[in-house]
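Sequence, please.
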């Protein structure tokens, strides 16, 4: 290729690059000018919006402020329980009654023992249906407490040791039966009458004899 042609191409390239740079500068300057003009036009509107119209009414603070009444969040005192002292009463012997049943089932709220009921009725040696007994008032130092809001609680109805899981023995009382021993005296063990009969083969229930009570389920 002719040397003159090469020089012409090189010069044309230089000119094209220079024109491109100049055009970029022109566009950048024009963009800056447009942005500045937009900011100048929005300036008064922004200032007016921030200050607000002078015709708007201004809120005045109240002359007096009434303080709010304090709220009492303190817990209210609970209702005091009603103290009811047990009084002496009488009881007519029913079928199935025994000294133990009277003390620990029928009058369990008085915290009496079988001996205390027996001592209050020295003339009665054997319980018979229809006999009238004197039931003491109970422990004078331990009055019965009745709370109207309190939930009733279960009171054990079996002799000491009957609520344990271990096998034990039980002295038969008048009026006892295999059903009563299983479902009343030792109900927490979830025994069946057959469980008691198997633990005491050939035993006929009589007051005073001792029977074996399995540990339960």
């Amino acid at each position: 290729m002719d040397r003159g042609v090469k020089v012409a191409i090189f010069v044309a390239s230089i000119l094209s690059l220079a024109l491109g740079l100049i055009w970029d500068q022109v566009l950048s300057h024009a963009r800056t000018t447009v942005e500045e003009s937009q900011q100048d036009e929005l300036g008064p509107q922004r200032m007016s919006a921030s200050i607000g119209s002078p015709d708007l009414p201004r809120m005045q603070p109240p002359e007096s402020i009434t303080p709010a009444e304090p709220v009492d969040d303190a817990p209210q005192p609970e209702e005091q329980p009603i103290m009811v002292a047990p009084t002496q009463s009488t009881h007519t012997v029913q079928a199935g009654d025994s000294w133990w049943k009277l003390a620990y089932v029928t009058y369990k709220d008085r915290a009496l023992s079988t001996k205390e009921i027996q001592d209050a009725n020295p003339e009665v040696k054997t319980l018979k249906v229809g006999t009238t007994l004197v039931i003491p008032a109970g422990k004078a130092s331990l009055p019965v407490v009745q709370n109207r809001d309190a939930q009733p609680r279960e009171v054990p109805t079996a002799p000491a040791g009957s609520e344990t899981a271990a096998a034990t023995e039980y002295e038969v009382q008048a009026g006892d039966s295999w059903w009563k021993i299983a479902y009343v005296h030792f109900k927490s063990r979830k025994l069946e009458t057959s469980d008691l009969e198997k633990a005491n083969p050939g035993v006929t229930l009589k007051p005073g004899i001792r029977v074996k009570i399995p540990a339960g389920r």
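Residues 121 and 168 are 31 Å apart (CA to CA).
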